[in-house]
Amino acid sequence: MVEKFGNRNAFWQALIFTVIVFGFGIMMGFFIEDHRAKYVNSNLLDSEISLLDEQLTVNSIKDFNISCDANVENIFNFADKVYEDALELERYDGASTFSNQLIVLHKKYDLLRLTLWLEAIKIKKNCNSDFHIVTYLYEYKTEDVEKQAKQKYYSRILAQLKSENREEVLLIPIAANMNLSSVDLTLSQYNITEFPAIILNEERVITDFMSFEKINRIILMNV
After folding, report:
1. The whole model's pTM is what?
2. Measured between alpha carbons, how far is 155 from 34 in angstroms, rounded to an integer?
3. The domain that contains 191 carries what CATH number?
4. Tens digit of each residue's pLDDT (9 = 90 or more) over 155-166
5. Is 205 in contact with 189 (CB distance < 8 Å)?
6. Which strand (E) or helix (H) includes residue 2?
7. What is the per-residue DSSP string for 29-58?
8. Cα-based torsion angle of the residue sequence 48, 50, 56, 61 in order, rounded to the nearest 10 degrees
9. Which of 3, 18, 44, 210 is 20 to 30 A removed from 160 (C-alpha atoms)?
């Protein structure tokens, strides 16, 4: 009888311990998630301020006759910062299991990157610059295995392209399936029906597998 009572007591102790550990794990998960969201949101706010600053700089080209070289350098520096922030967001988002905060932040970043794209087009036109704008459109959290593989491939070769041509290529990744009207409206001009896709200098759309060498030739040599 004593042995049975001891076994039952041990069972309840183990159960209570398990519940405590499980509850602590959930609380830690929410804490980490909230910390991630706050950190990313802080970066986003900083990027939004930088974008507003960049927009004012673009307008100052005509109003104050500021050097186009300085404006092109600024847009590249800003694009690189947004790109690095977005990569960090993707890493956090891949580990996200407790809330939708990072999804909302992802939408804000996509709007930020769309604005960056439009501002880059303005600078290129107003300054008659010859840098290349590469806009990469992909599906966020796609469950299509084949599409996942294609997107990983595109991400890798475009990162290489940017790494090897930092001062010639402006790389802007945008998720195309976030139900953002401004993004949908802009993309409708290109009649793109499948993703991932790459828009080169607002003129050519690539949706098929291509080698790094071929895409590099198309962009840099206009072939």
Report:
1. 0.74
2. 28
3. 3.40.30.10
4. 999 999 999 988
5. no
6. helix 2-64
7. HHHHHHHHHHHHHHHHHHHHHHHHHHHHHH
8. -140
9. 44
Are residues 57 and 146 both part of a single domain?
no
Domain check: are 136 and 124 in the same one?
A: no
Residue 147: give the domain boundaries.
Answer: 131-223
Q: Please, are residues 57 and 73 in contact by the beta-carbon 8 Å criterion?
A: no
- Banded model confidence at residue 9, pLDDT cuts 50, 70, 90: low
- Residue 159 sits in the same domain as residue 195: yes
Amino acid at residue number 165: N
What is the chain's percent helix, strand, coil content, to nearest 5?
70, 10, 20
Among 129, 153, 172, the domain-final residue is 129
Domain boundary among 129, 146, 170: 129
Query: Are residue 108 and residue 146 in the same domain, yes or no?
Result: no
- Identify the band that residue 93 occupies on the pLDDT scale cut at 50, 70 and 90: low
| β-bridge pairing 132-138 and 169-175 | parallel
Three-class SS state of 214: helix
Are 149 and 115 members of one domain? no
The listed range with the strongest mean pLDDT (22-31, 39-48, 98-107, 118-127) is 118-127
Decide: 111 and 44 in contact? Cβ < 8 Å.
no
State CA 64 to chain mean position distance: 33
198: three-class secondary structure by DSSP: strand
Q: Into how many domains does the chain fold?
A: 2
pLDDT mean across residues, the chain: 77
